[in-house]
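User: Design a sequence. Structure:
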């Protein structure tokens, strides 16, 4: 499965979250760090849902860039 992940630059590195997985967040010093950390966070989050007997949410969030004249 592929979950949309939002990655944002912060004063100390990067933070990430997935809109389809409430509470699943991560941080990292570099873009590569946060991407790997988020991959691990998603796997951990899904395993926790499975162990607790919750349904695994299907990826449903979409994204696009809208070009405008500024």
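Assistant: Done.
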């Amino acid at each position: 499965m592929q979950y949309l992940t939002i990655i944002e630059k912060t004063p100390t590195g990067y933070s990430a979250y997935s809109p389809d997985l409430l509470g699943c967040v991560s941080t990292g010093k570099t873009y590569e760090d946060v991407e790997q950390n988020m991959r691990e966070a998603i796997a951990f989050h899904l395993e926790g849902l499975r162990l607790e007997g919750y349904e695994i949410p299907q990826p449903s969030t979409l994204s696009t860039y809208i070009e405008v004249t500024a």
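The two ends are 36 Å apart (CA to CA). The helical segments are 31-51.
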